[in-house]
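Structure (tokenized):
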């Protein structure tokens, strides 16, 4: 590694992880150090490699974990130590993101750096609110300004007289706290009090909230609705287009806050599906997957997998752990031999097919009992079976197959343990903001969630992926509001949509 590393000033976009650039994602995945601000989507933290040092620089309104000078010194120090440093900033680093100041500090210190632009909230935010900042019917000019200037200057460099007279759309950020002052200055300098204005908070995320009004009354509306920051404001006739093209806020789960309790590695599929439907997702993993206690025994069983008539997989985690171990020993998939393959459900089958291996047996009901019913249609007497499982799995599969005359060996591929790490502050957010729904995808996610001792949010319900998970919820006196059918992630998502389709948003 070179004596001097490099610092990347990266725009994280306005919040929706899908709006991050490919270059930005690549750099986050490679980073030795990630310095992020409070406006970055917490999902980005999951993309870092093992061992990456993650540092929260804060940077929201008056609440700074690190001052700007401390942040400048930090990225210089880490880069000079030979690290690949990603300074992740909300929106675009060079649009009111103080990226220019940080770049200057790096340049003065002789540290190599790269600037990676991001989608600015000044453009992306209004788009998600159904407001085009330019439109042939309304304007040919766009003006962007900040509502929060350097307080040490002692004067304002914003010429409201010019802004009030300027044609076209005006967009500003960081101005909620000074909204009455800003709108009043526009009117004072000749702007029509009836000029349309819209404010969008947490734009492009499931927590998005938009209010509209006129320059004359928007401050009253914001106070009445307790509208807060971070927010982007749009002034001009383009706001009228929102009535026709407000697309994001019409999604079926918009306005719903949903907690995902799956492991950090597995949360993505469910979280992504819910976000695409407009939900505000809080990822609060309650379990994590660890290697089995008997690693040598597991490795030996995998090595001898070709000797079995059947391989039985009852979770995607088991599939992944099995084949990771298998290909660590064998280079050729044909070394697996020709066993028949059974999967407990479509999620497990999908994971098996990712390794270009077919599935011979898939039950109609995606639970252990359903798998046993499927095997009853097969002749398994005196056949050898390797059951790839978690240490905590119910013994139904092994016991019932043995009763049918099969010779079953248990291959413990992993164990499930409670998750104690909370790098994104999900527990604090759940306690502060509450939720409409907590989703559970296994009995272990249920037990580990309640072991956290968190207060159950007011008005919140539990959603279950299947009967075993529902049973675990009832043991904790929390009967599920619904149970997915089929018992998989798509089935769970569909059940969530059906549930909230019958209820109005609070």
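Design, position by position:
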């Amino acid at each position: 590694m070179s004596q001097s590393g490099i610092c990347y000033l990266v725009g994280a976009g306005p919040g929706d992880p899908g709006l991050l650039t490919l270059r930005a994602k690549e750099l986050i995945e490679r980073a030795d150090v990630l310095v992020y601000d409070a406006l970055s989507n917490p999902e980005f933290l999951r993309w870092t490699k093992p061992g990456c040092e993650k540092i929260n620089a804060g940077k929201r309104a008056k609440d700074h974990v690190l001052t700007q000078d401390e942040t400048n010194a930090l990225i210089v120090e880490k880069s000079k130590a030979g690290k690949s440093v990603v300074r992740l900033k909300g929106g675009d680093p060079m649009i009111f993101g103080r990226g220019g100041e940080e770049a200057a500090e790096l340049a003065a210190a002789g540290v190599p750096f790269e600037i990676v632009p991001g989608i600015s909230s000044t453009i992306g935010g209004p788009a998600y609110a159904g407001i085009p900042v330019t439109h042939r019917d309304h304007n040919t000019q766009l003006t962007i300004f900040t509502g929060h200037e350097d307080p040490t200057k002692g004067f304002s460099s914003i010429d409201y007289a010019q802004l009030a007279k300027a044609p076209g759309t005006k967009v500003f950020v960081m101005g909620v706290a000074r909204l009455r002052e800003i709108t009043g200055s526009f009117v004072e300098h000749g702007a029509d009090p009836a000029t349309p204005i819209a404010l969008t908070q947490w734009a492009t995320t499931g927590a998005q909230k938009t209010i509209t009004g006129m320059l004359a009354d928007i401050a009253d509306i914001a106070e009445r609705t307790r509208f807060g920051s971070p927010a982007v404001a749009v002034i001009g006739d383009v706001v009228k287009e929102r009535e026709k093209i407000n697309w994001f806020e019409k999604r079926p789960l918009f306005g719903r806050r949903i907690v995902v309790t799956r492991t950090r590695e597995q949360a993505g599929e469910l979280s992504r599906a819910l976000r695409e439907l407009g939900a505000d997702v809080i990822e609060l993993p309650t379990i994590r997957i660890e290697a089995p206690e008997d690693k040598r025994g597991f490795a030996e069983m995998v090595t001898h997998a070709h000797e079995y008539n059947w391989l039985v997989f009852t979770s995607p985690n088991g599939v992944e752990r099995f084949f990771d171990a298998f290909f660590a020993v064998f280079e050729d998939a044909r070394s697996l031999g020709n066993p028949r393959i059974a999967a407990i459900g479509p999620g497990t089958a999908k994971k098996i097919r990712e390794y270009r291996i077919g599935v011979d047996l898939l039950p109609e009901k995606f639970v252990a009992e359903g798998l046993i019913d499927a095997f009853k249609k097969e002749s398994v007497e005196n056949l050898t079976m390797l059951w790839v499982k978690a240490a905590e799995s119910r013994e139904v599969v092994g016991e019932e197959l043995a009763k049918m005359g099969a010779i079953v060996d248990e291959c413990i591929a992993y164990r499930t343990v409670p998750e104690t790490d909370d790098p994104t502050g999900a527990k604090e957010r759940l306690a502060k903001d509450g939720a409409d729904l907590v989703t559970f995808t296994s009995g272990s996610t249920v037990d580990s969630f309640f072991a956290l001792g968190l207060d159950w949010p007011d008005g919140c319900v539990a959603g279950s992926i299947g009967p075993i998970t529902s049973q675990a919820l009832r043991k904790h006196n929390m009967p599920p509001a619904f149970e997915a059918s089929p018992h998989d992630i798509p089935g769970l998502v569909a059940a969530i949509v059906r549930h909230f389709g019958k209820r109005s948003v609070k």
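Reviewer-requested clarification: The chain has four domains: 6-118, 123-250, 257-286+420-501, 292-418. The longest strand covers residues 407-418.
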